[in-house]
Amino acid sequence: PQRWLAQGRGSPRLVLVVVFVALLLDNMLLTVVVPIVPTFLYTTEYEGANSSVAPAQTEPAPPALRAPPFSSLFSYFDNTTVTVSGSDSPLGVPNGTESSLQPPSSPPAPQRGCPEGDEFLTKENVRVGLLFASKALVQLLVNPSVGLLTNRIGYHIPMFIGFTIMFLSTVMFAFSGSYTLLFIARALQGVGSSFSSVAGLGMLASVYTDDFERGNAMGIALGGLALGVLIGAPFGSIMYEFVGKSSPFLVLAFLALLDGALQLCILQPSRISPESTKATPMSTLLRDPYILVAAGALCFSNMGVAMLEPTLPIWMMQTMCSPQWQLGMAFLPASISYLIGTNLFGILANKMGRWLCSMIGMAVVGVSLLCVPLAKNIYGLIGPNGGLGFAIGMVDSSMMPIMGYLVDLRHTSTYGTVYAIADVAFCMGFAIGPSTGGAIVRAIGFPWLMVIIGVTNLAYAPLCWCLRSPPAKEEKMAILSQECPLQTQSYSRQRPLREFPLTEDSDVEEENVE
């Protein structure tokens, strides 16, 4: 086993496995709370407060102030008036049926209609949006520091720090019973996610130096991200409905421990391995217009699904009267299609042109978002959410390799800083989206929110054309071009190997090589 581990530590494939698992668990925790938080807050804060009124009315009054023999009691669960008898006689209900009086401590009957409290649900859009955005906002602030840290000490130690913080956040989610504790746990997750994503993507870019192989590796790693998104929301809704709130988080905590053991065996996180070359300053990268265009595509394409996370479940509760398990299953088509898109276009994007792939993807994102409010039930969400996930997979699997390629082409080939910028763009979408989405829904409604973000993606899509053939800096002219890497490489290596004396066919052979 020791010899196998020693050989495996030098294998890029095992590094890819570690990054895949880290992104998988990070995004499972990211999405597992999406169906849980709205219903948990509604149950604990709205129903909990109102249901306490009903038992109070069933207590017998003092003899001097005893109510009449029959009094009316309003139920907050089935919204019907029940006639309560002060004696042992059965209850009289409007439809003529009779049932025995149950004690106040018995659970209420299952709710079959739409949830009450439209005003509470409307306000909850803002609170849930802020809670979801806290993770991305904290990650946005921490990312630049993590990028600089990876340039100084390498990628292995930050990866293990990310695992440790993610484990603590998961355990805190399991035992949090109030909005404040959930908010703190979500913000703590942002710190751990920053370490894991920046260090993981930078590590992949450093071990896969060939542009084509790097694109394939990024597609597989983003497949782990997609699989986490795919499993998270349905897993959370089903476990919360049938087992309890803490159960999905305890399962994730156990999986996180396995990920930590995997990192200890393969990465050796106690070893410091700084970059051999000095990294380009982040301020210089932020002034590069091509990096900004790529970062903007990541931001706006992911902002659409970020706005859906807090607002779509509440909109479904209000308009479709959806049960709890459907709130997470609504994201299943987007997750499956994202998983397909990232793995498919990790290979195809290099052949068809990553700029074209991302431009088409952003256009499809815009059209899909415009179609979401047209759904009348959960089945009507399959098409728009499926197209949305597939298109975001196209954009992500194209833009992540482009970020590494732009650094190779125009700057120093160190990747911690540029993938910190990519993660900042990703987090800006998930910070601005939920926080502003809830406020926009409260002001003008959910359909207009989808129109705004859909039109924004359609308007931004043509800018991806700028990434078709970015120019290289003078000192980087020898770097492989995006369109024909193998031909350029063979030309530079084979020309000095021509044999002498030259024959008449030498010039013809040279033209064929070129």
UniProtKB/TrEMBL annotation:
Q: How does it sit in the membrane?
A: Multi-pass membrane protein
Does the UniProt entry include the keyword Transmembrane?
A: yes
Family label: Belongs to the major facilitator superfamily. Vesicular transporter family.
Transmembrane spans: 14-37, 161-185, 191-208, 220-243, 249-269, 290-308, 328-348, 355-375, 387-407, 419-440, 446-467
**Which Gene3D superfamilies does the record associate with it?**
MFS general substrate transporter like domains
What is the recorded name of this protein? VMAT1 protein
Q: Where is the Major facilitator superfamily (MFS) profile domain?
A: 15-472
Q: Where is this region: Disordered?
A: 86-117, 489-514
Instruction: List this protein's GO terms for biological process.
Output: aminergic neurotransmitter loading into synaptic vesicle
Tell me the GO molecular function terms: serotonin:sodium:chloride symporter activity; xenobiotic transmembrane transporter activity
Tell me, what's a Pfam family for it? MFS_1
Instruction: Give Gene Ontology CC terms.
Output: synaptic vesicle membrane; terminal bouton
UniProt subcellular location: Cytoplasmic vesicle, Secretory vesicle, Synaptic vesicle membrane
Q: The organism sits in which domain of life?
A: Eukaryota
Keywords carried by this UniProt record = Cytoplasmic vesicle, Glycoprotein, Membrane, Neurotransmitter transport, Synapse, Transmembrane, Transmembrane helix, Transport
Q: Which regions are flagged for Acidic residues bias?
A: 502-514
Q: Which reaction does this chain catalyze?
A: dopamine(in) + 2 H(+)(out) = dopamine(out) + 2 H(+)(in); serotonin(in) + 2 H(+)(out) = serotonin(out) + 2 H(+)(in)
Q: Does the keyword Cell membrane apply?
A: no
Q: Where is the signal peptide?
A: none
